[in-house]
Design brief:
This protein has about 270 residues and is an alpha/beta fold. The protein has a single domain, classed as UDP-N-acetylmuramoyl-L-alanine:D-glutamate ligase (3-Layer(aba) Sandwich). It contains nine helices and nine strands. α1 links the parallel β1 and β2.
Length: about 270
């Protein structure tokens, strides 16, 4: 497979391999991209939950970003777990020097098992300093509720929350509906010009660890190859659904998905 593009991933490490940097690298690689990384934290976790979070010093995060991009310029950037205000500000300042227009921000706040992965004080910094730099933000419903201070129960609530997020300065929003209890999953894509609702049948499984990380990395990869944003979201959602449906059933908790599914069904993503 010929490499199509270069993606810088700024996120935390997941020792279980299902989410975080590990999921990001698997996703980018399986979709034909070249993954570079700046690790923001090391988490000790498995499919049952997070045991601890070891932060990386902000200076070291900044150096990873700038030193990597000085040599290999990314076609797109995916941002995941940023656990503190200082880290968020560091990343925001570093991005001023990298100057990428294709930034996909996944505002990771809570792990699948319920462990909080970001300081409460950092949420305001995220809204003030980083969201407005993103080309696309991909919150799930709990994250959108925290960011917008609204309750989300219906599709209409999702559209309202997505509109609130646009007011923070982000150009596009993909609000993921996987946490809603229904037979069909609806993801809301919204910008100033259009609204698109992606509707897919929900797969009945608890093996969904790392789906948010995977989706944002998939979108960043398709985007980096020159595909339009809405199409990149559509293909990213398709890739994640295939990965969930073919999950390996590993672990005794919320197990990982199958990131290698695209190698088998690669024709579907062209």
């Amino acid at each position: 497979m010929k490499l199509k593009s270069k993606i810088l991933i700024i996120a935390g490490s997941d020792s279980s391999g299902g989410a975080g940097i590990q999921a990001d690298i698997k996703t980018v690689t399986s979709l034909g991209g070249y993954a570079m990384t700046a690790i923001t934290a090391v988490t000790v976790q498995n499919t049952r939950g997070v045991d601890s979070v070891i932060p990386i010093k902000p200076k070291d995060i900044r150096d990873q970003i700038l030193f990597t991009c000085k040599d290999i310029r990314p076609n797109a950037i995916k941002i995941g777990m940023l656990h503190s205000s200082q880290v968020i500000e560091t990343v925001a300042n570093a991005l001023k020097k990298v100057k990428s227009s294709k930034i996909v921000l996944d505002p990771v706040m809570v792990a699948k098992g319920g462990a909080r992965l970001i300081d409460k004080s950092a949420i305001k910094t995220l809204k003030d300093k980083l969201i407005k730099k993103a080309y696309l933000i991909t919150p799930n419903i709990p994250e959108a509720e925290v960011l917008t201070k609204t309750k989300i129960k219906t599709t209409e609530d999702m559209v309202y929350a997505a509109n609130v997020l646009l007011k923070f300065g982000v150009k596009n929003v993909l609000l993921k509906g996987g946490h809603r209890q229904s037979k069909y999953m609806k993801d809301i894509f919204l910008n100033r010009r259009e609204l698109k609702i992606f509707k897919n049948k929900k797969i009945n499984t608890t093996n969904t660890h790392g789906t948010g990380c995977t989706l944002s990395s998939a979108i960043a990869t398709f985007l980096s190859c020159g595909k339009p944003l809405k199409k990149s979201c559509e293909l990213g959602i398709k890739y994640v659904n295939q990965a969930i449906g073919s999950n390996p059933n590993y672990g005794k908790g919320n197990g990982p998905i199958n990131h290698l599914n695209s190698i088998i069904i690669n024709k579907k993503f062209k």
